[in-house]
């Protein structure tokens, strides 16, 4: 089968960096992108093309970047929206600007990048758009509200997009990993945002300590995680012959979190079903 062309955002570390290596090892071609292209210049040594791309740029700029990317190999088959970061902080203390910045990268960045490539995919009546979400879309965590909400927004945006583009030959893949040993938590401890308000201090200190202790001890193997993503996109190995997944949890913790949330939701529906239905005309 002919090599497919991948464009991956946020490839300077973590899932993005490992995806570049895995995709190339499978015989496909990659355009690796980052805000600072110098940080990924070494990827040329393994055969990747590199492109400066800031997902928070305007739609006009992203549209031009899409044209530039397409011109490298003549097409783009798969877009992976991986760029993102984690915003810590108590809801009451996080500012509008902090929430906006979190959504501007994690949500609008992914949506605008996707929008820039959709005309190309529509013209080909083919393509795959991958969104790297998170298990926290299913179960919000204290002192992490902006991040959890951004991943929940991506979850439902991807779900809606899938129903719009599937009839014209474009697939979407929503990946919701658990905790993997990436650089996502490699922030200064001060960035965990201990609350200045006494009422929230205990919980914010506990969250900060939990994440600091957890960093480097996450159960997920990043290499295995990206292998599973590529397996699904290419229909290879254990994904061969399986139906395309509505969402792809990665990691035993992600499976457990999603299952527990679904079971709790069903229990709540059982208790409140008659009450809820009583509002019908």
Automatic annotation (TrEMBL):
PANTHER family reported for this sequence: SHORT CHAIN DEHYDROGENASE, SHORT-CHAIN DEHYDROGENASE_REDUCTASE FAMILY PROTEIN
Record-stated family: Belongs to the short-chain dehydrogenases/reductases (SDR) family.
Protein name: Uncharacterized protein
Alphabetic keyword roster: Oxidoreductase
GO molecular function: oxidoreductase activity
CDD domains attached to this UniProt entry: 17beta-HSD-like_SDR_c
One Pfam family linked to the record: adh_short
